Protein: Cobalt transporter
Amino acid sequence: MSVQQNASTTVAASGARAGSVVQSAMAVCLGLFVVGFVGFSHVEIVHNAAHDTRHANAFPCH
Structure:
């Protein structure tokens, strides 16, 4: 019975690891999209919203 428990635990652990890798990759993609879109946006409202948020969080941006 312990063999089955260890095998299912290994499968669960590898599934959890794969899930965290996918979540990390999606977070990186979302971050790059947001930085790329907002940083190079010609829409003034989008740029100003990001600019004000950076100042509100005491993050230097210029």
Q: What stands out?
A: The chain has two helices and no strands. The helical segments are 2-39, 44-56.
